[in-house]
Amino acid sequence: MAEVLEEHGTDRWNFSHLPEAVVFAECRDDVVAVMKFANERGIPVTTRGAGVGYVGGVCAG
Q1: Which end of the chain is more exposed for a tag (fewer CB within 10 A), N or C?
Q2: d(C-alpha 20, C-alpha 52), whole Å
Q3: What is the pLDDT of residues 22-57, one digit of tens each?
């Protein structure tokens, strides 16, 4: 678990911010469910693609 959080908390420019959770959506319905859950509770969501950016865009914070 810790390795997954660390892996998804950085980009190629060594900017980092450890996420509180990582979701691996496998289909559209997974995304809808997670976004609905987060919206109902006021939880901010930062989306992530391949994590190869150089400006910290994939890292919330």
Answers
A1: N
A2: 20
A3: 888 999 999 999 999 999 999 988 887 666 666 656
**Segment 1-9 long-range contacts (CB within 8 Å, at least 24 positions apart):** 7/51, 8/48, 8/51, 8/58, 9/59
**pTM (two decimals):** 0.65
Query: Around Cβ 8, how many Cβ atoms within 10 Å?
Result: 20
Give 3-state DSSP helix, strand, coil % of the chain, rounded to 5. 35, 5, 65
Q: How confident is the model at residue 12 (pLDDT cuts 50, 70, 90)?
A: low
From the list 51, 45, 15, the residue with the least C-alpha distance to 31 is 45
